[in-house]
Amino acid sequence: MNKSNYTLAILKPDCYRKNLVGTIIDKILNAGFIIKKMKMIHLAKEEAEKFYEVHKRKDFYIELIKFMTSGPSFPMILEKENAIETFREFIGSTDPNKAAEGTIRKLYADNVRQNIVHGSDTEINAKREIQFFFNS
Ligand code: CMP
């Protein structure tokens, strides 16, 4: 298994609240990603804190934890050649105002925190995040 062909995505609580889960999954599949694993989970505070521990000292950390524990999320393992980079291009910049036209965040995100979807940013993080949610 070449890990660089796998990434960890999360459809976030705002995605669920806006009834966009089906729409985003459809777009992910149409973009050629294979969903290898997926689940619905309501993150506990401790889990969100652990997942985002690299951001612990950032000024947005507390609000980020509140947001990520505010409703259901859908973590998934995606497979595609060069999945990490390709998925990040597909979802667009963290800040929807800076995201390219046609990307998921440009189309659907409200702001830099409530940005619909997460995608791993490096191979090391993808590995850690896949392990975190799926023990694999
Ligand atoms: P994500 O890709 O899940 O990785 C870290 C998250 O922190 C990011 O998406 C946003 O939800 C949030 N985030 C990053 N930067 C900011 C910021 N400047 N203000 C608020 N939230 C942020």
Please, could you describe this protein's structure?
The protein is 41% helix and 15% strand. The protein is an alpha+beta fold and 136 residues long. The chain has a single domain, classed as Nucleoside diphosphate kinase-like domain (Alpha-Beta Plaits), CATH 3.30.70.141. It contains seven helices and four strands. Residues 55, 60, 64, 94, 112-113, 115, 118 line the site of adenosine-3',5'-cyclic-monophosphate.
Question: Could you give a short description of this structure?
Answer:
With 136 residues, the chain is α+β, with helices and mostly antiparallel strands. The chain is built from 7 helices and 4 strands.
What is the percent of helical residues?
Answer: 40-55%
| CATH fold descriptor | Alpha-Beta Plaits
Strand order of the largest sheet: 2-3-1-4
Number of spatially distinct domains: 1
CATH hierarchy: architecture: 2-Layer Sandwich
Task: Please summarize the sheet with the most strands.
Answer: 4 strands, antiparallel
Number of helices: 7
CATH-level-4 superfamily name: Nucleoside diphosphate kinase-like domain
Low-confidence stretches: none
Distance between the termini: 11 Å
CATH class label: Alpha Beta
Task: Compute the CA-based radius of gyration.
Answer: 14 Å
Average pLDDT score: 96
Q: Based on Cα principal axes, name the global outline.
A: globular
Q: Structural class of the secondary structure composition? A: alpha+beta
Present as ligands are: adenosine-3',5'-cyclic-monophosphate
